[in-house]
Every structure is written in C-alpha cells, then in structure tokens.
Design brief:
- With 353 residues, the chain is an alpha+beta fold.
- The chain folds into 2 domains: 218 residues, Jelly Rolls, CATH 2.60.120; 81 residues, Jelly Rolls.
- 20% of the residues lie in helices and 34% in strands.
- Strands 1, 4, 14, 15, 16, 17, 18, 19 and 20 form a 9-stranded antiparallel beta sheet that branches. A 6-stranded antiparallel beta sheet has the order 2-3-5-12-7-10. Strands 9-8-11 form a 3-stranded antiparallel beta sheet, with no helix packed on it.
- The longest helix is centred in the first third of the chain and has 22 residues.
- The model has no long low-confidence stretch (mean pLDDT 92).
Amino acid sequence: MVKRDLASVLTEKKIIFAEIKILIMEEQSLYPLKFMPLFKDKIWGGNKIKDIVGIDYSPLERCGELWVLSGVEEDETLVANGYLAECTLSEIIDMYTDELMGENNYNEFGEHFPLLLKIIDAKEKLSVQVHPDDKIAQSKGMDNGKTEMWYVMQADEGAEIISGFNKKMTKAEVVNRLRDNNIAEVLNTETTEKGDLFYIPAGQIHAIGSGVLLAEIQQSSDSTYRVYDWDRVDDNGKPRDLHRAEAIEALDLNYVGPSAKSGYNYAINKTVELVECQYFTTNIIHLSEGLIKDYSDLDSFVIYFCVEGSGLIDSLGHRIPLRAGEAMLIPAIAGKTTIEPNGLIKILEIYIQ
C-alpha cells in the first residue's frame, strides 16, 4: 500500500473542489441566500427568541443569542435554501467571489465575510464590556475589531441600555472605580423601548439591560472584554472571567450624553437611514405595500434582516419567503429586487459602501 502525505491529499481535495466549483457555476447561477441560525446558550438568556420572534425550534432552554448570519470561523451559518444548501459563507465566496460580495468588498475582505448578525435576548443584564478597534485587535492576532449597532425589537417596561459614561473620565478614575467596585455610578444608563437605535463604536463601554430584545449588526468578530459582571456567578457558582487590562487598553474615555440613542426620521413605505459608518450602512424599511429596490449601482451584497412580520423577496428570478428572525443575503450582481409584505414587514437593509 502506497503511503500518501497530508500535503498531497489536501492538494487533491483542492483540485476536486475546484472542479466541482466550475461545474456548479456552469450549471447554476447565484440567488438570494437564507441561512440556518446558530443558537447560543448564555447565562443571561431567556425565551423571547421563541415566544416573541417566533423561532421555536431552539434546542436550548435559555437562548441568549441567535446568530442569524455568521462567517466567524468555526461558527459559520450554513445556507438553508437552493442548490448551495449546507455550504458555508466562505465556500460560497470562494465560488462566486465578487459576484456575491461586490468587487471592492472582495478585494478588501477576500473569503472573510465582514459582518455578523445576531438577535440578543437579555432576560438578565449583560456584563459591562468594551470591544477593541481594528488596530488593537490586529495587534493581538485578530482579523478586525468590533463596531456594532443595536435596533431594539422589544423591551419590557423600564428596561435600560448602558452606553458610554455619564461624565468625562480619566483612565485612573476608571481603574480606581473598577478596584472599588463602583463603576456603575458613572455609566450612562437610559430607558429604552421598541424602535430605539444605539450605535456602539469600538472602544465605547456598554451593556444591555434585562428585558431587552434587540437585533445586532457588527463587524465579524466575537471579541469581547468584560469590565464588570455585576458580581454574578456562573452555573457552577464561580465568577466569570474579566478582562480589565485589555478593556482599559481598548477603552474610549469620551463620555456619551445626555443621550446615547441615535435619532432617525421614521416613515412607512420608504427607506430610512439608521447608521452609516465605514463598516456598514443600515437602513430600516417598514412596508405595508410592495417596494422595488434597484441595486444596479451598488458594489456590495445586501442583507435583509427581518425584525418584524413576513413577506416575499423577488430577486434574480427567485421569489423567496422571509420572516421575522431570518436574514437573506442578496448577491452583489442583483439589480432590481422587490419586497412584497404579507400585511406588514419590517426589514433592516444592510450593505457596505
């Protein structure tokens, strides 16, 4: 029996995959992609993703996070529809490159999908935390930092969001307050309700309060530095790890006040801008009637992240249903795309300019 080294086996597999890729691309064209979500058990999680959003097939008793669309290594969501079913995002990008991503996005990100979409259910408040920016993250061997935004889908009466400080702080004051366990006194805390918008750039201290259900759009990263965890213990009775040295390095000391909420001009049956930054643009589309979108001049994929209601998406010759809690990835080659609501539908429209 002839022994084969690992390198030759991997080379053979790459050749076979390349041949399959060519056959697929010759026979099939791209279409809007839906994904199988990932369910994440969290100590602070609840059951609103099942009871309010309607995603009722979670295997978890408490589901803190639903990863709706992810290219994070070892946590990639798989395609749920069509001939590409069960493929990962990186595999599809390898097949279709800029047809899926857009030319500029593919040149910048390659096979690394740049965004991560989640739904977060905070039955209990999350830890106070900070995310690194790109420079700090890359200095530690990560691909990128984490800037994110939150759209509040539902909030219990009196629910709160922490975003930034309530006054100007120095690094020494933060260190002393962490040592004395009274950092909460200088955090900017605001009540929140359905429809609120929060933009959380890398370096901004923040936390989601209990009773909040929200959609999160962020750079593709699972990097979080816990600053303070409310003296909580895990299921084994032990405090969770804190990352205070890393957090202090990443922290932006500019306070946010008097309000950290981002305002926007709500309108139905129109596209309304929520956030535009270097990492993503997010709009909200709330429809009671059909809407045609033309992406011919946009050099980017588009994601439809449905946060309420349901409807049909007509794009690239396919009509595909979309409901609350789901995301659909519209390839960059798409031109006109029609959104047809079933009654009402509310979608976060996301792309990179």
